[in-house]
Specification:
With 296 residues, the chain is of the alpha+beta class. Helices cover 40% and strands 20% of the residues. The chain folds into 2 domains: 157 residues, 2-Layer Sandwich (Beta Polymerase, domain 2); 117 residues, no CATH class. Strand 3 and strand 4 form a beta hairpin. The longest helix is centred in the last third of the chain and has 17 residues. The termini are close together. This is cGAS/DncV-like nucleotidyltransferase C-terminal helical domain-containing protein.
Length: 296
């Protein structure tokens, strides 16, 4: 037996967004409040995650909000020549307002507004839902630049992302704008099958978690979006069962060591990186998905 056509159609549907929208609007207004201690600084507030990428399913709860300090950035110089590194280091200057101070100011402001509903997390500030407000994670970050070239401020090239620190003090760099843009393009190029298929895989994962076939942490949504972003366009489409079977079979047979994240700036699987999947976890998820398909 296989997963039925009707079940796959149900799994492909986007989850409700009304309460999420209200939560995001409430938090955005709070974070943009002119009475906050960081208001005079240059910052922006935006979404990331499943709701941003239209891949949310029934059961998704947390709203992922980013508040980014725009006047401060961290750099990755690993792709620069030694000459360019010297030119950059000679030209750079320190930040007058640090990310650490920004995070303290944002955290203090949220505690003032939401009290004990605010809890520090490993990466983001967690705000417990209350009434119509859903649970939310607020990620405090600054800009990140992965430099490709630097001769002067007038002659430079870099990929722009975000930098933040986890609770252990480790800096994490990522590229959410490129991720979102690339997912949207993949969806359009696949004639609207990409995000449709991501939601199926997310619901399959959730079902396997409920049935205790896999652990909750095995396949985060971000990695599933990246996994399917690597599938060639000609493997999407047709009937629901054909689409699922074709994408799953291709993923199982492919050389996944060459897969990149949807941002196309990191490999999808890496043994130590804080922003990539572990290859053995990816393989386990796909193996369990095949078992579920064959035994459903």
């Amino acid at each position: 037996m296989t997963i039925s056509e009707d079940q796959l159609k149900t799994w492909a549907k986007q989850g409700p967004t009304a309460q999420f929208t209200a939560t995001y609007d409430t938090l955005k207004n709070c974070l943009n409040d002119s009475n906050s201690p960081y208001y005079p600084k240059d910052f922006s507030v935006f979404l990331q995650g499943s709701y941003k990428n239209d891949s949310n399913v029934y059961g998704d709860s947390d709203v992922d909000v980013v508040i980014q300090l725009n006047q401060t950035y961290y750099s990755d110089l690993s792709n620069l020549s030694e000459e360019d590194k010297k030119l950059y280091n000679a030209a750079r200057s320190g930040a007058g307002y640090t990310l650490d101070q920004f995070k303290k100011d944002v955290t203090g402001w949220l505690v003032k507004k939401y009290g004990t509903d605010v809890q520090p997390g490993t990466k983001a500030i967690y705000i417990k839902g209350n009434g119509s407000r859903r649970n939310a994670d607020v990620l405090v970050c600054c800009k990140h630049r992965r430099y490709i070239r630097f001769k002067s401020w007038a002659d430079q090239h870099y990929y722009e992302g975000i930098s933040f620190f986890n609770s252990g003090g480790m800096r994490i760099d990522n590229f959410p704008t490129q991720h979102s843009d690339n997912c949207t393009k993949k969806h359009q190029d696949s004639k609207n099958w990409y995000k449709h298929t991501v939601r199926i895989y997310k619901n399959l994962r959730n079902t396997m978690i409920e049935k205790k076939l896999v652990e909750d942490s095995l396949a985060p949504s971000y990695f599933l979006e990246g996994l399917l972003w690597n599938v060639p366009l000609d493997h999407f489409g047709g009937k629901e069962q054909q689409n699922f079977r074709d994408t799953l079979e291709w993923l199982w047979m492919a050389d996944r060591s060459k897969f990149t994240c949807a941002n196309d700036l990191y490999y999808l699987c890496h043994p130590t990186s804080l922003v990539t999947w572990r290859a053995e976890q990816c393989e386990k998820f796909l193996s369990k998905a095949i078992d579920y398909w064959n035994e459903a």
